[in-house]
């Protein structure tokens, strides 16, 4: 019985740590703030505060957009009409995000996504660690 319990626990741990890129897709939607950036040389920059956050919206067709949002203390957001159009593709066991604007096209890869964290690397090997944005609402 003890061996069955240990085997079940190990199976659960292995499955929960699997790096299935398709499982990342539903977790991307929402508001994210950059927590840390790791440059290609390994140096890191911590973000204790940022006045903008990224909003990702992905539809069932794996297309959508990313937009910079500025949260307010009343729970609302301000933004411009600018947005980066995106397409998600699972390729070679990775989830790639292809962005398009009138000025540029580029690719990023989702390395990890959970309910609370999102790790993305760009083509210059810069890693962006996001944490799920939790708004601060000041009641009147």
Task: Give an overview of the whole structure.
The protein has a single domain (21-132), classed as Beta Barrel (Lipocalin), CATH 2.40.128.280. The chain is 16% helix and 46% strand. It is built from 2 helices and 10 strands, in the order H-H-E-E-E-E-E-E-E-E-E-E. The chain is globular and about 50 Å long. With 140 residues, it is of the alpha+beta class. An 8-stranded antiparallel barrel has the order 1-3-4-6-7-8-9-10. Strand 1 and strand 2 (44-46) form a beta hairpin. It has helices at 2-16, 21-28; strands at 30-38, 44-46, 53-58, 63-71, 77-78, 84-91, 94-100, 105-113, 117-122, 127-132. The model is unreliable at 1-5 and 7-17 (pLDDT under 50). Residues 1-23 form the signal peptide. It comes from Gelidibacter sediminis. This is Lipocalin-like domain-containing protein.
CATH C-level label: Mainly Beta
Question: What is the CATH-assigned architecture?
Answer: Beta Barrel
Secondary-structure element order, as H and E? HHEEEEEEEEEE
Low-confidence stretches: 1-5, 7-17
Count of β-strands: 10
CATH topology annotation: Lipocalin
Q: Indicate the structural class.
A: alpha+beta
Helix content: 10-25%
Major sheet strand order? 1-3-4-6-7-8-9-10
Largest sheet: 8 strands, antiparallel, barrel
Can you tell me the overall shape?
globular
Spatial extent as radius of gyration: 18 Å
């Amino acid at each position: 019985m003890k061996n069955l319990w240990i085997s079940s626990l190990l199976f659960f741990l292995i499955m929960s740590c699997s790096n299935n890129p398709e499982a990342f897709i539903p977790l991307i939607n929402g508001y994210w703030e950059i927590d840390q950036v790791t440059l290609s040389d390994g140096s890191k920059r911590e973000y204790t505060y940022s006045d903008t956050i990224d909003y990702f919206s992905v539809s069932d067709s794996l297309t959508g957009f990313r937009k910079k949002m500025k949260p307010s203390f009343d729970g609302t957001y301000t933004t411009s009409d600018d947005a980066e159009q995106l397409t998600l593709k699972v390729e070679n066991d990775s989830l790639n995000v292809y962005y398009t604007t009138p000025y540029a096209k580029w690719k990023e890869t989702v390395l990890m996504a959970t309910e609370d964290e999102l790790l993305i690397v760009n083509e210059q090997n810069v890693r962006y660690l996001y944490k799920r944005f939790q708004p601060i609402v000041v009641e009147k």
